[in-house]
Model the fold of this input.
Amino acid sequence: MASLPPPTWAELYYDDTWNTVTGLRQTSPVTVTRGLTSESSSEAEPTTCTCDLGNRDNRYSPRNPMSPLYGKIGRNTPFRMGYDVGSPWARIQQGSDINYASLFVNPTPALDVTGDFDLRVEISSDRWSGKQTVAQRAVESTNSRDWTLQLLDGRLSFMWFPTGTWESRIYHQSTVPLQAYTGQRLALRVTLDVDNGAGGHTVRFYTGRTVDDEEWQPLGDPLTGAGTTSLYTGNAYMELGAGFEYDWDPGTSAVYPLKGRAYALQLRAGIGGTPQVDMKTSQAEPGGSTFVDATGVTWHRGGVAILTNRHIRMTGEVPAWPPTRDLSGNDNIVSIAPTGITRRMNAGNKPQDSALKRYIKTRGPIECWPLTDGVDAKTARSLLGGRDMVPANEPGDTAPTWGGGTLADWVEPVLTFKSGKYGSLIGYTPRLTSVGSQMHADVFLTGAALDGFTHVRLWDTGAGTNTSPQNAIFLILGGDTNQATLISHSEMTDSSSESHIGNFFDIGIFDEQPHHVRLTVDLNTPFVRLYVDGVVKASGGLSINLRPLSRIEVAWGVSSYDRAAGYVTYWGEDGPSAAELYSALMGFQGEAAGARIERLATESGYTVSVGGESTLQQPMGIQEQARLLELLNEANQTDFGYLLDARDRAEVIQRGGSTLWNQPPALVLDYSAGVIGAPFKPVDDDKLTENDVSVKRAYGSVAAQHVLDEGELSVQDPPNGVGRYDNEYTYSLATDRQADHVASMRLHLGTYNGVRYTRITLNLANPRVFAMIDDILRIDVGDKIRLTNLPADHGPDAVDVLVHGYEEEAGPDAWTITFNCRPGEPWTTGVANGADSRADTGGSELAAAIDADDTTLSVTVTGERAWTTDPADFPFDLRVAGEVMTATGISGTTSPQTITVVRSVNGVSKDHQAGSDVRLATPNYAAF
Done:
């Protein structure tokens, strides 16, 4: 039962643990704002919270030396708040613990499945990578092994034992990884067809929202094995979250307990069969030890697992502790406003370093001279604080022009070798005794040097004596012959020697484009390779044995062209590949949006996780120099997703755009049941209208343009359309072809023809609403809400909306949550072989008028394709002037066709005139 104020709690993190806030005021409201407004198309603001802390003892005064929290709290102290309310869930593990924890069922006939197998679990994980037990029925000591479902390095793995022995094991692993953000709650499903009719067996993996889902998203491809199979039914107990005795993967490596939460498990005999076990933690009591599920099976809490209904609603940092004292002096409070970590990510105005510089710094070279020093520089500073790279000052040398060179527009200015001049630079590296089995030296160049040459010389740490020669590799790049020459060189006490490794042609770097040149030396079996733009262009054996480097020289000869150079870098065997560095030079063009978000955050010391299959993430364009949060939001914009602070941890999550399509509703709200609170003011306006959209790729060519020429929201003047609403955008995209796709998607979203339900308020103190508290508190940004039984003036159909953000208030007088929403219908797409995935005719209309009770329609097809007559395609719903009818059969293969229908499916019953539009009741769109 709901009560006011709700059971709200707050905690601060100090002394390496979370501590209860003892003075959280229940007499003033606690508020949380998260995500975007209903009409915002830009990035989400940081999550914010406001609350008052009682401070009569001055404990929340960081500058008070008498406070028990003195030195423990201050600016950006971690904070979190939430409620103890609703049904429980099972916490299996948290933090760094690896103690045994599970929900388990003792042996019972309900666990015995020998034929086709269907297992569904609902969990969340604090780390979807690594090795974790999801659920299993296997006991090592009694040689009673039935099956186990595991997460192995991000992929679902199912293993079963037809005879109960280890040797009989059969296992399959999903062909694609499970891509979910940290803490994301998912339903996972595995099915085993023990006899697929082709002499084998088939395993399929799926993801969904709940164990009761009717439609599931396949996780990779079906996996078929030779021979029919069966499952062993021994005397093992079944566990969710960990293995008490059995904890091995197929290769006998240890698998740890699930790091996260468990919510439900269904075990079905037969694929899609009746549940033999149907557990939801909502059937338990918070703090309980045992409970009975919907099929009468008794569940037990094992190990350190607990059943709790604690919900975290906001996690962030407290940026300030402003004291407030009333005029009487009898009360003292601190009104704090914690924010998510994206606020700190966006602090300051300094752009991030280039993708190349960030990547080199993150990978930790032995030495690097970026050569990005300013115009007044005389030497090149080391990126790592080592010795400067300096001009060699040989007779006739000319110093380079500092800060005047351009590798690419998205890379910092580097130095220039001016035309008609020659010179050289020397950089002394740290003198190491070992760098492993390989060492690498990189230089990045550009310039149309069709004549002249560039030298790169690598000198090892030899003493230059007869007993310890100083050996070197020389690379000569000749623009006039488009070739590279490799030479090995040795310096001894009184002599030197050289060996010509080879001349290599068609190097392809003598133009105005940025290029990466790498020399890799294998130290154990002396060998040298020349990489150009990530690809091997030359190689050869060495007659000398090189030690780690002592110095790198870069020299340039006279040329008719200016040339630029930068980022002279030295690596050991653990350095990145040449292909990776070339990708960094090119701004990681083509990198998946989610991968870019994760990489950028990691490079900056933040934790970000991404939800959505990596193969469905949009490829990014060139990474420019901008602030971190701008770069993250840029990638999220390209992916049409949501980037925001995590709700239950000091991290950032990105919900990929692919996860928004075809969702089941997270919550169904029946307006007639009185569960939607005031104000409820849907709008039918042009606020989000775009019917002429142009999208240009950053560093791209001509913008792609999509225009809606016909229809109610077309660019035609009223009444044939609404007039022109044109907008132009620039996106970070890998190809110009993507610009066409983005423009199409924006036009699709901008020409949704329906009422907008911008704000939906729920009064959580209303008992009818509180009955849905578990589903309400699960909803997050990007989820779908379905509104049913709306007032007649809103139209007869259910309406789907996507949650764009929300505002929450919990206090002594009210407990509400207001969802900021956008239309959800545009995020419904056809699915191959899906029950509701049908193509429309392209146009059809009534050939003759009908009365309200007529059950046959004569329909003229104005599009290219006639309506189906295949009995297997029926029934399906049509919409005629607002009335939904169910088509049960169609006769005639050419226009006009006769359609037999059931009338007034959506409650609308009326006459219709000839020429009335006939179309599918539920339109399908092509996914972006």
Q: What stands out?
A: The chain has eight helices and 55 strands. The two ends are 43 Å apart (CA to CA). The CA atoms of residues 88 and 309 lie 4 Å apart. Residues 736-750 form the longest helix (15 residues).
